[in-house]
Predict the 3D structure of the following.
Amino acid sequence: HDDGVSIISVNGLSFLRYLEIASKQDIKVAVVTDNDKDYKKNIEDKYKAYQLNPKIEIFSDKENANYTFEICLFNNNKELFENCNLTKSEDVMSFMTNNKSESALRILNLLMEEKCDITVPEYIESAVKWIKE
């Protein structure tokens, strides 16, 4: 928060209401969201009303196969996650998508122990750069 950026988790029905309020303020809002297997419907169509607002940008992976954060993260770091003992499971990606909190904690521990460097999904990097402009 030292750089004036706040991160807020907004879910469900309140999400579009938050954007309605934010659009009336003089603040920048970067929305980082999953495409849930249909980028056109869940990103382009859903947020069409905000496309002309220069203060609001929506960021999501454009590939429908990368439908959630964990899959994007795994795909950017396959070799790392397959070799870092994140789980005893043979299917690391399945473990990550079915155990989101636990895998996030394990990844955080790896990062804190400086046992790995993670490549962040491009859409998240873009959101951070945009919000800081």
